[in-house]
Amino acid sequence: MMGSMELLGLFLAASGALAASSRYPRWAPGPQELLSLSPETPYGSLWPLPQSLRVSPTRFRLAPDQFQIVHGPGSSAGPNCSLLQDAFRRYYEYMFGYSKWQNQDEKKSLCETELSLLQVIITSKDSECDKFPSITSDESYHLQVSKPTSVLKADKVWGILRGLETFSQLLYEDDCGTYFVNESIISDFPRFAYRGILLDTSRHFLPLKVILTNLDAMAFNKFNVLHWHIVDDPSFPYESTTFPELNAQGAYTPNHVYTPVDVHNVIEYARLRGIRVIPEFDTPGHTQSWRKGKMCIILKGELKILYAYNGNKKREKEDW
Ligand SMILES: *[C@@H]1O[C@H](CO)[C@@H](O)[C@H](O)[C@H]1NC(C)=O
Ligand SMILES: *[C@@H]1O[C@H](CO)[C@@H](O)[C@H](O)[C@H]1NC(C)=O
């Protein structure tokens, strides 16, 4: 139990750092350092630890202006897979975005690149590019870091997402700002099919941006389920098109709601990171916020359960 509490703290810390600065260098105060597993954790260490990992002391230089992530030969996915295009852009930015703020000309002369290409290959016929992740999604991948071309292979896009995260964690910089990655062979698959966190947006309304930042932090830790505890007793922030009274009366204020577009954006942002969203409309208990807008939505049978739950016979009778 204690372990999972600490992990939650880690998420908040990671999101805080992200929110504080869009230039947050991924390799600096990474999850390894925050967990303080070992004071000598070397750069390029991985979290979570892959199933099989061989890292050699041979390191390759990378130059941000020459390095590319591309679709490899024989892949069943191509530039028409927007999930992967988005992931390629995102991970390039995580790895090298920070270097935009440093003197690139100086670096170029110092650094002749050795690793210039990461080829991404989907080996099964259906990449699942346009699908949603599920409990049975295949997240396994194989990553070979070699020069001049590294290869990341997976049966489905979900494995590629986890492999890109791993590749980005392998990267580190020396004191002169040169990027390196060690020669490695990694085979990986998750130990648990369900790796989730719960966000309660009823007790505390969370702005959309905070939910999205949490999804980023989850992807960095290879988590795959957002359990969205969206409504509860204190407030009803879900904007219902069928029963608009629910959020009109039940939300803290008219501004503290998630519109259908917001909900769509959360689900798509999560999908692009291999995360599925499980919404929870908590009933029959925990429905005080529902009753503000729509008393009759609570059926007679459920009222009895409410009785039992609240243990306040008198008030329930008056309300009804
Ligand atoms: C990566 O290579 C460097 C340079 O040879 C070495 O010092 C370091 O220990 C290697 N990292 C790992 C995780 O093996
Ligand atoms: C997308 O690209 C892949 C490989 O380039 C191809 O096999 C597939 O048919 C394309 N899909 C669509 C919907 O165009």
UniProtKB/TrEMBL annotation:
Presence of the UniProt keyword Disulfide bond in the record: yes
Signal sequence, renumbered to the chain: 1-19
EC number: 3.2.1.52
GO biological processes: carbohydrate metabolic process; ganglioside catabolic process; glycosaminoglycan metabolic process
Subunit: There are 3 forms of beta-hexosaminidase: hexosaminidase A is a heterodimer composed of one subunit alpha and one subunit beta (chain A and B); hexosaminidase B is a homodimer of two beta subunits (two chains A and B); hexosaminidase S is a homodimer of two alpha subunits. The composition of the dimer (isozyme A versus isozyme S) has a significant effect on the substrate specificity of the alpha subunit active site.
Function: Hydrolyzes the non-reducing end N-acetyl-D-hexosamine and/or sulfated N-acetyl-D-hexosamine of glycoconjugates, such as the oligosaccharide moieties from proteins and neutral glycolipids, or from certain mucopolysaccharides. The isozyme B does not hydrolyze each of these substrates, however hydrolyzes efficiently neutral oligosaccharide. Only the isozyme A is responsible for the degradation of GM2 gangliosides in the presence of GM2A. During fertilization is responsible, at least in part, for the zona block to polyspermy.
Keyword Transmembrane helix: no
Species of the source: Thamnophis sirtalis
Species classification: Eukaryota, Metazoa, Chordata, Craniata, Vertebrata
Protein name in the entry: Beta-hexosaminidase subunit beta
Residues annotated as domain Beta-hexosaminidase eukaryotic type N-terminal: 46-170
Sorted UniProt keywords: Cytoplasmic vesicle, Disulfide bond, Glycoprotein, Glycosidase, Hydrolase, Lipid metabolism, Lysosome, Signal
